[in-house]
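Slide 14.
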Amino acid sequence: MGANMLLLFLVSVEPYLYNLIGVSFVSAPGQLDSGITTALYAADMGSMFLIIAYFTHEITIEERNLIPQKLFKSYRLQRNATIAVAALFLVSTLPIFWSLAVFGFQIRFILWMSTLGASIIRRELEGRMESSSIRN
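Slide 15: predicted structure.
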């Protein structure tokens, strides 16, 4: 029950933190700087993904029989991809990512965009797993 409530709180805070990111780039006295706001946003997103990975892990416990046996590999792959995405968001909270930039983009934002790649890779792996199971 606690993880559900925490996830609900994190989801409700996410739009506020996202809005703060845009506002923080226009500096005003007494306002949080972009490094702090993006770190808070990344911590929020990383925490949400960790909770989702935990829920996915819980349904893949074989003794509980919550999903059909043939879906275990797919859900475990999804859990692992979700953990990887959470790790990218949480690593991006480190202060070193506040100042490093490539072609004018903070590396923090590049890490966030790379999470889309994790989703694409997971779907590709799932497709290969399905096609190999059909052949067998």
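Speaker note: Residues 2-135 form one domain.
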